[in-house]
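stuck on this fold:
=====
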Amino acid sequence: MGSLTDQNTAGTDELLRQLKIKVGVARRLIKEAASYEKEAAAQEQKIAGMRTEGRDSYDIKKQEEVLQESYMMIPDSKSRLQAALEHLAAFLTQSRDVKEVQESDVYAEANELATQLVTADSSG
């Protein structure tokens, strides 16, 4: 008798665990994308300062190479974030009928993150 309830509880626990993992991945990738953008902006300022100070052109060129590397990481991090948010949104759709998932603490944050996907799609 209790085994069906235990199976349901185990299944719900697994869904909640997966949801927490997906939210954690999305959070990390949001921070990563923001970090690359911040790094690129700081590098742009550094290069502008070097030019203003009349620094050696070789040094400036090397810093521009660093800037280009930062620029190359931005689309990659954003595409990984996009994929993570799509997986999260799909997971929310698949588990929308599971009451325990909807009532969990992490569900509201997951919905908010999935909303960022919609916002990014409509603005990009």
